[in-house]
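Worked problem 6 (solution included).
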Amino acid sequence: MYSLNRKERKGFALSIVLWIVATLMLGIAFIMGISKETIHLTRMLQDKTTATIEAQNMLEILKFQIPTADYDAKSFILTDKILPKLPDKIIPDGRKYHVNHTTFYLQDVSMLFSISFPPPSVLAGLATDKRELRFTLEDALSDWVDKDQAVRLNGAEEAYYRIKKKVDYRPRNTPTLQSPDELRIIKGYDTLSSDQWQTLKRQLYYGRGSMLNLAFLDPKQLSVVLQIDPMQAEIYAMMREKDFSQFIQTVSGLRTFYDESMGFYLSRHVRIHIETTIGKSHTTLETLIDFKSNTIRPFTIEDYKAF
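Solution. The predicted structure is:
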């Protein structure tokens, strides 16, 4: 019978040891890979948690600063800042402010248009400058919210959606839309380009209506709301920057100025957008808060989203 000699036995034992060492090394490399990934995920989770805490902290700061601030037609004036890096004046027109890892902006809803009771002619004018499409948008939205089945010249009632578009939905037949996105399924609005739609949507909100603050409206909005020529609206916008008092006096004298729905002051009904980035982690908070106090609470949170 053949038997291994001493030299062969040593070689065989060495090969087994090398295989064992190689297996152990592979195992160690695998464990180190898992550990490295775990550390990476843990760090990202920590950054995400920190970003969320910082974003929520900024929201709490703003929930204190805004109700206690002085204010004029266009800004909140922070007289007692609890965070030194905050600006002395916050203008709630969508402009961005940066504090440490956080960027935030405010929009007073007096510069936006509520779709709770959407004005068809105004929304159509904001959406497009094309005459025929504007008539379609206005009539289709009017048909969408009215209770009858009479079709306006450029509008659409149930038969249009059911037969021509072949969809299962029909007009709401009530004056209150439930979301700005509901507009997107209405005749005419469904043909807007993505850029046109996003531009319009940024000017809308869901909630109780507010008087429009003409101190905030851009020239296109002024043109639509006051029913004036775009060039005239540009002139009024320049006048507003140079002499606000003259702007108020001039615009208030227009026949299309309605003091029941238009003014020159903040509503203190504010959309707040906060973004915090730490490392590769990002947190966004969006909320709509009515800062007009009542007998029950100092402010009312009407909407809140975090992601």
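Discussion: The longest helix spans residues 6-68.
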